[in-house]
Every structure is written in structure tokens, then in C-alpha cells.
Design brief:
alpha/beta, 17 helices, TIM Barrel, binds zinc ion, single chain, about 325 residues, four-stranded parallel sheet, about 50% helix
């Protein structure tokens, strides 16, 4: 498979890259499908995203005004979930961690309806994929209230990990301690969006204070040798998302994407799509973009691909 991966990159051959086993460990489930899939499914033409968004809120605004009108409410979410599994099947994603918000779970009728529906999509589109559902909370949530009702979602043992997303500057990381302590009782892998817009120090603090096992994004860490050493020593993996970071303006370009710095400083990294529907780049293309920009070479990219396939904390 390594040879096929190399050939795909050298020859710019998407078909070859699609056949290579890959992971996608950071995917927001409601935005994990391809625009082309959604267009075909809904029988509409959807607008292409702009080359850059004005940060997270600009992205959210574009999604709400441009894509959502075609696929809103419970029905729209279910279609987008289905498309996310279809993409995992198409792209040979053999390890998939996707996150789901409690609001979406409630919208489709709670855990009793949610779990069989999701497992149905998993079985239909990518039965051989190791699927690791992640529960995610927006940073603006009422932490105490969400902690109190966490058992409702976690007692079945369906979720494998926890995440907090939606803005690093909404509240101090200390505020999320109750949520993460409870997640620990259920032995969830602890992840959080940090170091996407934030600094190296923000990454270190979040890892130390919340006991994170992994970080979604975390590219801010590349500006500090000391923090990279801390992450490497503690085997904290960063699940980075190149197109997301470039399009939101958190990284200058693919060529200057800080993944090389992180990799060379011994930090474990994986490559992921984040919001495929909005960034218009599926996982094989993320590898291709980094290779073509000269950000990393063949062996390094393959090393990172393998890291994603075998890296359960
Ligand atoms: Zn994300």
C-alpha cells in the first residue's frame, strides 16, 4: 500500500490515493460529506466555497446562508450524516472518528433513534471501517448543565471520545473541568479544539488542565520548541486539518503549513478534513496538497498516514 500511496502522490492520481487505507480523526459529522455527493442526492447545484473565509464565524455564516437552506432541520442533518459515511466508504477511510453534538442527537429523537441510524449508515457504506463516535460540545454551552445530563449520552458506551469546539476564546479552559472529569469516568479519549487560532501556551495549558490525550488542530504549538517538546514527551497527538487552517486564515499556505515543524520536533500528527463540505477537500486531497506544495515528502506523509491508522491513545 505504501507503493500505491507514493505513486498516487507522484502521479497526482486521485484514484490511486482513494484506494490506500487512511484515517480521518477529526470530522464534524454534519459537514463530513462531499458537496458533489450532496448535490446528487438533493438534485441541486450548490455554490462552491470561496478560497478564504473570514475566520470561524465567516465560515459559519457562509454555511448558514448558502448550504443550509437546501438541507436544514433533522432531515438535512440525517442526509449529511449519510454522506459522511458514504465518503468514508469512497475514500477507504479505515479509521474514522466523527463528532456529534447533543443538540443534533436530540433533534433526531435522542440516543434510541440516533445509534441505530448511525450504525445503519456505518454498515451500509463502510462496514469494515473502525468507527469511533465522538461527542462534542460547543464552547458556549452551559458546562454544568451538560455535565449533569452527560450520563444520558454516555451510559450506553457508544461514544469513544469527547471534544469541545466552537471558539477558543469563549471561556477559560478551567471552566470545562467538570465536563472532562465526567468524560474520564467513562474512559473517553479526551480531545479539544485548541491551538487552531490560539497559541502554543494555550495548547499546553489545555492539555495540562483538562488532561487531554489528543488535540484537534494544535498548530499554534509549532511556534514554541518547549511546547513541542512537552507534547512529544507526553505523546500528545495533534489532529491537524490543513485546508481548514489555510482557508480560515490560521495558516499562511500549504507550503508554509507548520506540520513539518511539528513532525521534525517529534510531535505525533495526523492529517484530517475537519469540515469537508465547507473546505471542499477530501482526505486524499489533503495529502496531495501538502505533497504538491513541498510541505512534506513521501516518507514523511506515509509515516503520518500510518500514525492515523494505528494511534489509539
Ligand atoms: Zn473542527
Amino acid at each position: 500500500m505504501k507503493d500505491l500511496f507514493f505513486e498516487g502522490l507522484i502521479e497526482n492520481d486521485t484514484e490511486k490515493l482513494l484506494r490506500v487505507p487512511k484515517s480521518d480523526i477529526h470530522v464534524h459529522s454534519t459537514k463530513g460529506c462531499r458537496r458533489e455527493w450532496l448535490e446528487e442526492r438533493l438534485n441541486v447545484d450548490l455554490p462552491k466555497p470561496p478560497p478564504k473565509f473570514d475566520g470561524l464565524w465567516g465560515m459559519q455564516g457562509w454555511f448558514t446562508s448558502t448550504i443550509k437552506p437546501y438541507c436544514s432541520g433533522a432531515e438535512g442533518i440525517i442526509v449529511r450524516w449519510e454522506g459522511s459515511f458514504a465518503e468514508a466508504g469512497r475514500n477507504n477511510i479505515t479509521r474514522l472518528a466523527m463528532n456529534f453534538g447533543v443538540t443534533e442527537i436530540e433533534l433526531v429523537g435522542g440516543m434510541e433513534t440516533f445509534v441505530p441510524m448511525i450504525e445503519g449508515f456505518h454498515k451500509k457504506y463502510c462496514p469494515d471501517t473502525v468507527f469511533e463516535p465522538e461527542i462534542t460540545y460547543v464552547a458556549a454551552c452551559d458546562v454544568q448543565m451538560e455535565t449533569d445530563r452527560m450520563d444520558e449520552y454516555l451510559s450506553s458506551g457508544y461514544f469513544r471520545s469527547i471534544d469541545v469546539c466552537g471558539g477558543e476564546d469563549i471561556k477559560p479552559v478551567e471552566d470545562f473541568i467538570p465536563l472532562y472529569r465526567k468524560a474520564e469516568q467513562y474512559r473517553l479519549i479526551k480531545r479539544m479544539h485548541v491551538g487552531e487560532s490560539g497559541s502554543a501556551e494555550d495548547v499546553r495549558r489545555a492539555v495540562e488542565i483538562l488532561g487531554l490525550d489528543e488535540v484537534h488542530h494544535g498548530i499554534g504549538a509549532a511556534s514554541s520548541k518547549e511546547v513541542m517538546r512537552f507534547l512529544a514527551d507526553n505523546k500528545i497527538q495533534l489532529n491537524v486539518c490543513p485546508s481548514s487552517n489555510v482557508m480560515l486564515g490560521y495558516a499562511k499556505s500549504y507550503k508554509e503549513y507548520p506540520i513539518r515543524t511539528l513532525y521534525e520536533n517529534g510531535v505525533k500528527v495526523t492529517i484530517n478534513t475537519d469540515d469537508l463540505l465547507l473546505f471542499d477537500s477530501s482526505i486524499e486531497n489533503e495529502y496531495l496538497l501538502l505533497y504538491n506544495a513541498g510541505a512534506l515528502g513521501l516518507e514523511e506523509l506515509n509515516d503520518i498516514r500510518m500514525q492515523g491508522l494505528c494511534s489509539l491513545p
